[in-house]
Specification:
174 residues; single chain; 4 helices; alpha/beta; globular
Length: 174
């Protein structure tokens, strides 16, 4: 494999979202206690060094502020790696992707999330994360979304809340 596709070129930024939520049996709510991404990497046998995994936030994407999105963009800008995977909640994933695209970083950036928390038996999180790892190593620079077994350009996708999936939309004309 060429050096540019090496795992050493990947940084994983964690921001929260459903992929990292846990169920609290006391109050019956989904919340954040810690990230599950390190356990996911271990389960998938992905040998990404821990120093290349950076937890920025643990928030539901509906709770992200403009300052949070700017912090995500700043972390992406500061990363020395050329390939970034960002875990993110699905509700505002496209909005954050738009902000990253506007920075024109010249890096391959893949946002990924889950419709069902990783800690649930029917979660799509591990599959989506695996898709993101494969895609970030193969795609050219740009900003993408990895969901439902598909890769989307950030500006040609939307979340279909009725169907619970991401779907393609026509790329807007300039």
């Amino acid at each position: 494999m060429p050096a540019s596709n090496s795992i050493e070129q990947i940084r994983l930024l964690i921001t929260g979202g459903t992929i990292d939520k846990s169920y609290c049996p006391v109050d019956g709510q989904l919340s954040f206690s810690r990230t599950h991404v390190l356990a996911m990497l271990k389960q998938a046998r992905v040998s990404l060094p821990e120093e290349q995994v950076q937890t920025l936030l643990l928030k539901d994407s509906l709770d992200l502020t403009d300052a949070d999105r700017e912090a995500i963009c700043q972390a992406a800008t500061a990363a020395t790696e050329t390939k970034l995977i960002i875990t993110h909640g699905t509700d505002t994933m496209v909005q954050t992707a738009q902000g990253l695209a506007a920075k024109q970083l010249g890096k391959t950036i893949v946002l990924v999330g889950a419709m069902v928390p990783y800690t649930f038996s029917n979660s799509d999180g591990l599959f989506n994360l695996g898709l993101a790892f494969g895609a970030v190593q193969l795609l050219p620079p740009g900003v993408y979304i990895a969901m439902n077994g598909r890769m989307f350009s950030w500006n040609a996708v939307r979340k279909n809340t009725a169907a619970g999936v991401f779907e393609s939309i026509p790329v807007p004309k300039p």
